Amino acid sequence: MKYIIRNDKKNNTEAINDYIKEKLGKLDKYFSNPEEIEANILTKSDGRLMRIEVTIPTQHFTLRNEVSNEDLYAAIDLVVDKLERQIRKNKDKINKKINKTYIQDFQYELEDEYYEENEIVKHKKIELKPIDEEEAIIQMNMLGHSFFVYKDVDTNNICVLYKRKDGNYGVIETK
Q1: Is the pTM of this model over 0.90?
Q2: Is 93 helix (H, G, I), strand (E, B) or coil?
Q3: For the chain: N or C, fewer Cβ within 10 A?
């Protein structure tokens, strides 16, 4: 796996970067071509809490998770454990979907990030490939988001899948 490690304010120490690479390297066994996968890691300090955000876009799905802890090493351990659980939990669903012809290959292009109160803090551009609702649910859950934008494979309309307060899902479809 290739690693892009950033810190929001300062550079991480070499020891932290090595620890991140060592721990995330445990995930290589889940990928058929780990040398082609690029992991984006961002570490931040929020007061006394340290935060690590890991995003691993692959050809067929995107893994994402973040953890905050007072100890950055503990946060790294926790985020790797969460990512591994995410992979194992969705492994069968992902493999089933990969064998279908309409797989979503989507990538994020990060734009500017702003940190003003009541302002837009992040812009993302996504490439939408047609998928079905089941694949959208898998993608949303793997990203850990409460909504997901996708293009429906049957209608070719842009849809928004969201998680309802009762635990079920809803879909908003455009015309």
Answers
A1: no
A2: helix
A3: C
